[in-house]
Input
Amino acid sequence: MEKPPKVTQREIARIAGVSQATVSMVLNDREYSNVRIPEATRERVRRAIEQTTYVPDPAARRLAGLDNKILGVFTYEAALSRESLDFYGPLLHGIEQEAERLGCDLLFFTSSPVEDGTRKLFHKQTRLRLTDGCILLGQQMDSAELTRLVEEGFPFVAVGRRDEPGVPYVGIDYVTLTGDIVEQAVALGHRRITYAHYGRSTPAAADRVAGLALAAETMLVETTLLSTADSDLSEVAAVIANGTDTVVITEDVFMAEALAVELAEHGKAIPEDLSLAVLGDVEGHSLGGRGMTGFQLPREQLAAEALALLQQLIVRNDKARAKLELRTMIEGSIVAGATLAQLKESR
Amino acid sequence: MEKPPKVTQREIARIAGVSQATVSMVLNDREYSNVRIPEATRERVRRAIEQTTYVPDPAARRLAGLDNKILGVFTYEAALSRESLDFYGPLLHGIEQEAERLGCDLLFFTSSPVEDGTRKLFHKQTRLRLTDGCILLGQQMDSAELTRLVEEGFPFVAVGRRDEPGVPYVGIDYVTLTGDIVEQAVALGHRRITYAHYGRSTPAAADRVAGLALAAETMLVETTLLSTADSDLSEVAAVIANGTDTVVITEDVFMAEALAVELAEHGKAIPEDLSLAVLGDVEGHSLGGRGMTGFQLPREQLAAEALALLQQLIVRNDKARAKLELRTMIEGSIVAGATLAQLKESR
DNA sequence: CGGTGATGATAATTCGGATTATCAACATCG
DNA sequence: CGATGTTGATAATCCGAATTATCATCACCG
Output
């Protein structure tokens, strides 16, 4: 009751009548330069281990330079709260599944200190180095931190496209998806589109704007950009209601829902008076019983691929690593929905 | 680009012109037996650290016997899948919040091998020892593993009441809650109750049965127990429909929903023909627009208290630890709902 | 019988940081 | 002036496992 004397290799060695080094070699089943251990001895060691409750100390293994089979999961804000789970849930699920497949444990950096509303990856007591590598999730990634990770050669993968050079990532191709939505709007007769967005400067947000601009140019569509960073949502709604654009595209489903309410107050019904599409995942959301037009994003796959890439970065040596494709874009798909409708001739 | 030579205390020492030992002592701001370090030297070391990107290696710290500020989270099945999240979500949220408060990271043992459908805590490569202590979640806890943890003196806390001696836990008082439900039924005129359960042998399941028995005896109520382990749900429904009991209590909300469907086929409406109550959390669930009668369980608080207790087990020395209350029961509350109704006189 | 390999296994070292045991240098006291 | 502190800081160890350097032993060969 008083002493839980932990079992070490030394203890195993004593029992089996061999040296600690022998125990280590049997355990890892390795053949070093000129070391040979006959089956008889190996067996003796194995039996000694079975007699006890020996488990290798992961800290010691790590210190000695071995893999730990621990992958870090860093989120720039709390990931497990009810609200965050909407976004992080599928990602975490994908990560958990893939980690299970790889035989890795997951370390969540919940202790990271919060500065300016976002967690800092590097701090005086970061347990980052305990992991073999790390997955980064969140919109608020800090460029300086990413760059430092690259410089230090620490294995990591960002979920979401990033601009910083050398940063490995797996992202979603919003440019193409956005183009597809515009194409659909055009096919339904629309020529004037308003994009209501948050005015964020993340790569994903930039890609949507870029996709929109590209599609507008190709398909001769006029676009109006309204940012809720400049004016609040009711103002945005007023501008739309008084304008002549026939389609409203929003950055995500939450803005779509809020905007629809505002527009209704201006007497604009969707999709009768105005079509609506969302440049984000719309699964499980609907507007007045109508399915929303938007994206279906393979978040679980996204996360799983990120983890798989991370694993590759960890296990491959430098040469093999150089050949890896560090940046992957994944295709999402369009959810037709019913909020983007044929343009009425009546105009 | 080729060499990320990690910064160690030795390197800091070289820069500051002191010994590694001095660096360590400055970092931990400790005063050993007869060691004194003047402010001037401390400052020199601190500046050297600021010049570099030094961060202590957690593996080395751990090996040297210090706290790691890492708490383990062990679940007996995958916790982050969409279905599991129903149950684990609030618990994990509570854990995350409390961990953040305590400044601890969380290690999820996703690599634990699955045997007989449930994960094993102990295996040849368990990273358990990397953590300062561990939280156990899930219905399927393995008695042998719990006992071994107790024997080894490893700090841990189970979420949910356990029978094994010496196991610290934080659980929900199902006995009292169940009694309250019965009391309510009696107040509404009911005297004959059927309890439909899964026939599990977990402590929580046993507590519900015990609470029911206790209440039945006190309040002179007749109870019938039906287990879906013995017969399937439609049979259970048939027995209930043909019987004379006026209240059905189910073990959880899922069984309640399924049973309600079956009962409807027998022409029994709830609560007109039969009252229904659930011995589990009913938040967010309803039956044909009617709120369910059942429990509201403070899952987040439960998890947070478990983590707080774990932290106490870790930081206190043996003596102080002996005085700790290792077993805590938390009170949930009753959700009145509308599926448990006044008994019609017409009988 | 001395030399040369192959065998089997161990002692010694490393990893990075914490802690203990020791020591040098200088001050103070009687 | 020598004994005794006091200050300041270092060398040496330890933690547990991985790996390298070395060393016995015995067999076989010429």
About this structure: The first helix of chain A runs from residue 9 to 16. Residues 18-22, 25, 34-38, 41, 60, 62-65 of chain A lie near DNA strand C (CB under 10 Å from a C1').
